[in-house]
Amino acid sequence: MLLFIHGHPFDRTMWTPQLGRFTAIAPDLRGYGHGPPAIGVTPLGDFADDLARLTESRSLILCGLSMGGQIAMEFHRRYPDRVRALILADTSARAETPESRLDRLAMADRLEREGMRGYAEEVLDRMVAPGNTEAAAHVLDMMLSAPPAGAAAAQRGRAERPDYRESLLSHPIQTLVIVGSEDTYTPIEEAKLIPATRLAVIEGAAHLPNLERPDEFNSIVTEFLAGLD
C-alpha cells in the first residue's frame, strides 16, 4: 500500500497530482485539513502512531514530503517491520540544532498569535520556484487554510525531532530521495545525507516538486515502485 504524508502547513490536497496517478491513500494529518484538531504539542511520534492506526498493512510504501518525510522516518523507526520502502521528498534526516529548535518554538508562538497569513506570504517564494503560478496559488491557499493551533503544535513537535540516520541504517530498506534543485529549506547537500538507494534531483523545482513538476515527480516514483523487490 502506498501512503502519502503531507508536509507543513499543508493538507492532503498537496498530493492531488499523485492521487490521480497512483492507487494510494493520503490522509489529512492531525491538526491540518479535515484531520482531528490539535493544540499544544504534536510530537512526530503522534503523527506516526495515527498513521499506524489508519491501516493494518504490513507492507507500506511511505511517501512523505518535508515534515511528511520526517513522519515517514519516525514511522519507520517505530514500526520497521511494517515498512516496505520509503520515498522521502525535500526533507532532512538530521536532528534539530539548538538554533533551529528555538526558531521552531518561536514560529509556533507566532502562528498562534498572528495566524497564518504573514508566515504564508513570507515563505511562498521558497516553497514554489518563480514562474509556477498555478502551484503557488494552491500552496498559498493550503497555508492560509491551515489551522494556526495545529500548525503551531506540529512545529513544537518538530523542534524535538531526533536524528533518523541511525534507524535508517539499522533497518535498511529501499529508499528513494527526491529534492528540487532550487530548494533552500532542504538543499541537495542536505538530501545527500539521507541513507538512500537512489537520489533524484528535479531541476527548476523548489520545496514542492510534486506540485511544481508533477509529471517528472510521478515518473520518478513510478520507476522506483516498478523496481521494488
Task: Choose one word for the global shape.
Answer: globular
Computed CA radius of gyration, to the nearest angstrom: 16 Å
Note poorly predicted spans.
Answer: none
- Could you say which structural class the secondary elements and strand pairing correspond to? alpha/beta
Strand content: 5-15%
- Our count of helices gives 11
Number of strands: 6
CATH superfamily: Alpha/Beta hydrolase fold, catalytic domain
The CATH architecture: 3-Layer(aba) Sandwich
CATH class: Alpha Beta
Number of domains: 1
Report the major sheet. Answer: 6 strands, parallel
Mean pLDDT: 97
CATH topology: Rossmann fold
Gap between N and C termini: 14 Å
Percentage of residues in helical conformation: 40-55%
Query: How do the SSEs run, as a string of H and E?
Result: EHEHEHEHHHHHEHEHH
Q: Order of strands across the widest beta sheet?
A: 2-1-3-4-5-6
Q: How would you characterize this protein structure?
A:
With 229 residues, the chain is of the alpha/beta class. The chain has one domain: Rossmann fold. It has eleven helices and six strands. The protein has helices spanning 16-19, 44-54, 67-78, 98-114, 117-127, 133-145, 148-158, 165-170, 188-191, 209-212, 214-226, and strands at residues 2-5, 24-25, 60-65, 83-89, 174-180, 198-202. The chain has a six-stranded parallel sheet with strand order 2-1-3-4-5-6, sandwiched between helices. It is globular, with a radius of gyration of 16 Å. The two termini are 14 Å apart.
